[in-house]
């Protein structure tokens, strides 16, 4: 089976990645993973130090797909109804009317999500998993497609509330941008010297075209050997002596969907083991917890995953 050339079959994906690169320089691999998450209809957690472009990446993505975009700045005093919406009594009709919150959009930027209380964080759980919001006993469907792109700073601990495992498990991927190289940072200065390229960015996809691409991603073939490889990797995280909490079945499904999307982005109609290997760190790491005693011995999630990948048999056909 010969790989399908991306530029001949899926020009919209190439156009989307190139469009985002007009704003974010030198981060093509991260952009490819971000686009893969969108094509897999999954949420993304961006964890990195301030100022590396987390918010700009999400805004560029939202502009590129042309969907409704809402930004929520998470603060300690934010209430769940500030996110989901609230029922307000109308004195003219003598009935309660639901006023939609910022969750009712296609792309949600949950900025500094770990700075709000667990009560407000939990308002996202139903939305992220079931694409709906329940207020006062009534359930309201959210936009389709619907993505939560959350950011958090790993260095700030004062006034922050770590996300619970149940919420972390709902993110398809956790990505880090990292600092640009010297050459990339010089290019950034030149590009931003006259105007912000984000202001001039135009959409290259519409929501309907995105839905069609998602349907094509769902048709990407995954062999039985690859499926077994994914499941064995999940089970190894649950059985490893350094791991307290391993990857859930939802994590296995996330790896499956992300692998289909990455293969599609790379121009193939089938998944190969290298797709799975590349995705394991960004799909699994935030779902795992190392035992305290193992952490004292220097064990980390990344090191454990490296060992698991090296010891798990790779399918050859």
TrEMBL record:
KW ATP-binding (keyword) present: yes
ChlI/MoxR AAA lid domain: residues covered: 236-305
Keyword Iron-sulfur: no
Keyword terms of this UniProt record: ATP-binding, Nucleotide-binding
InterPro entries registered for this protein in UniProt: ATPase_AAA-3, CbbQ/NirQ/NorQ/GpvN, ChlI/MoxR_AAA_lid, P-loop_NTPase
CDD domains from the UniProt entry: AAA
Domain ATPase AAA-3 as annotated: residue spans: 43-173
Highest taxon listed in the record's lineage: Bacteria
MF terms (GO), sorted A to Z: ATP binding; ATP hydrolysis activity
Alphabetized PANTHER family for the sequence: METHANOL DEHYDROGENASE REGULATOR, MOXR FAMILY PROTEIN
Family to which this protein belongs: Belongs to the MoxR family.
Protein name, entry field: MoxR family ATPase
Source species: Brevibacillus nitrificans
């Amino acid at each position: 089976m010969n790989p399908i050339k991306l530029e001949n079959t899926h020009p919209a994906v190439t156009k989307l990645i190139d469009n985002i690169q007009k704003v974010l320089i030198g981060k093509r691999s991260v952009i490819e993973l971000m686009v893969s998450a969108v094509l897999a209809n999954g949420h993304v957690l961006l964890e990195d130090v301030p100022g590396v472009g987390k918010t700009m990446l999400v805004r560029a993505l939202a502009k590129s797909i042309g969907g409704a975009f809402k930004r929520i700045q998470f603060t300690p005093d934010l209430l769940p109804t500030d996110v989901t919406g609230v029922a307000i009594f109308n004195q003219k009709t003598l009935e309660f009317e639901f006023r939609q919150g910022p969750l009712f959009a296609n792309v949600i930027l949950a900025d500094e999500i770990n700075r709000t209380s667990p009560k407000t964080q939990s308002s996202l759980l139903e939305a992220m998993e079931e694409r709906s919001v329940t207020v006062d006993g009534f359930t309201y469907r959210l936009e389709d497609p619907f993505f939560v792109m959350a950011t958090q700073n790993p260095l700030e601990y004062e006034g922050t509330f770590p996300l619970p495992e149940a919420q972390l498990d709902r993110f398809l991927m956790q990505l880090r941008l990292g600092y640009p190289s010297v050459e990339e940072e010089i290019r950034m200065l030149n590009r931003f010297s006259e105007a912000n390229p984000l202001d001039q960015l135009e959409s290259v996809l519409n929501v309907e075209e995105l839905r069609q691409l998602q349907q094509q991603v769902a048709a990407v073939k995954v062999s039985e050997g690859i499926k077994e490889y994914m499941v064995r990797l999940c089970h190894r995280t649950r059985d490893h002596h350094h791991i307290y909490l391993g990857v859930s079945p939802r994590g296995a499904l996330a790896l499956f969907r992300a692998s289909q999307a990455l293969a599609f982005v790379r121009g193939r109609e089938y998944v190969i083991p290298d797709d799975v290997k590349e995705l394991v760190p960004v799909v699994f790491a935030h779902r795992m917890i190392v035992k305290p005693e193992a952490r004292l011995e220097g064990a980390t999630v990344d090191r454990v995953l490296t060992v698991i990948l090296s010891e798990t048999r790779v399918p050859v056909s």
